[in-house]
Structures are given as structure tokens and as C-alpha cells.
Design goal:
binds magnesium ion; 5 helices; three-stranded antiparallel beta sheet; 2 domains; globular; Rossmann fold; alpha+beta; 3 strands
């Protein structure tokens, strides 16, 4: 079993105008290749905070995240689909390429292939408002 990630005593406090909010206290677990892990808990227990940290969208207060594979890529499907309503599905899916200035024909074709894999090939020229919730999640 190949170990990918080790999370040790992870802690996250948010600083707000009303003081500190403890969102995560001492979470530890290991992720191995092929693992399917569900994080279950009541609303406000820190699930999104944990995923934001693992997705590198937020920092943490204390603890350790160890990566056991070089260039490990972590993708994170947000709770909200976060698509831009004024962009088509293809343009939304190509946004990362736009930002990193890597929108080559080859890369756009790759994105089109992904959209096909997710059953969205007939919708690439539509706008987010024309898709169902689940379809928007898949675009995300
Ligand atoms: N940006 C933030 N600023 C301050 N407190 C936050 C912020 N985001 C989340 N929290 C607080 O952190 C705790 C965990 O929130 P969250 O990770 O969103 O929970 P979950 O996704 O499990 O419902 C909650 O008490 C929430 O109010
Ligand atoms: Mg959440």
C-alpha cells in the first residue's frame, strides 16, 4: 500500500472580529493510494475547513501535512460549483488554462475529452444556468 498523505494533529483556528474560532482540533489520518475516504460530521464540525486546507486554499494553525509523492496533485470539488455564469461550460472548464496561459489547442482538446467523459459533450456551448445542479458539479 503506497502512502500518499499523512495528516498529523492538524489544527485550524479562524481569527474573527469576535475572537478565535476553533474549527479543527488535532485531526490525524493517513491517505493511501486507492483509498476512498468519507469525512462525516454535523454541520460546522470542520469538514470544509479540512478540505480547503488539503486543497491548498487555506492555511492551518498547527500540526503537519506530509506528502509522500512528489508533485502530488490534489483536486477539490467545492461545495458550491463556483462557475462563472457569463462563461460557457467549455470556457469555465478552460479557466485554469486561461489563467496559466496554457490554452493550447491540445490542452483545450484534453478538456473537451474530460467533458465528454463526464457526459457533458452536448453542453459545452451552454451556460451554467442551463445545466442541472449535478451537471454543474461535474463541470466544477
Ligand atoms: N472563514 C471563516 N471565518 C470564521 N469562521 C469560519 C470560517 N469558515 C468556517 N468557520 C467556522 O469554522 C467551523 C467549521 O466550519 P466548516 O469547516 O465550514 O464546517 P462544515 O463544512 O463541517 O459544515 C464553524 O464553526 C464555522 O462557523
Ligand atoms: Mg461544509
Amino acid at each position: 500500500m503506497t502512502k500518499l498523505l499523512e495528516i498529523k494533529n492538524l489544527k485550524k483556528n479562524y481569527h474573527t472580529l469576535n475572537g478565535e474560532i476553533s474549527a479543527i482540533k488535532n485531526i490525524s489520518f493517513t491517505v493511501n493510494e486507492g483509498d476512498f475516504i468519507a469525512i462525516v460530521g454535523s454541520s460546522g464540525c470542520g469538514k470544509s475547513t479540512l478540505l480547503n486546507i488539503l486543497g491548498n486554499l487555506d492555511n492551518y494553525t498547527d500540526g503537519e501535512i506530509k506528502y509522500f509523492k512528489e508533485n502530488l496533485k490534489i483536486g477539490y470539488m467545492l461545495q458550491e460549483d463556483a462557475l462563472f455564469p457569463w462563461l460557457t461550460i467549455l470556457d469555465n472548464a478552460c479557466l485554469g488554462l486561461d489563467i496559466t496561459k496554457t490554452k493550447t489547442k491540445e490542452n483545450v482538446d484534453y478538456v473537451k475529452g474530460l467533458l465528454k467523459t463526464y457526459g457533458l459533450e452536448d453542453f459545452i456551448n451552454k451556460y451554467p444556468s442551463q445545466l442541472s445542479g449535478g451537471m454543474k458539479q461535474r463541470v466544477g
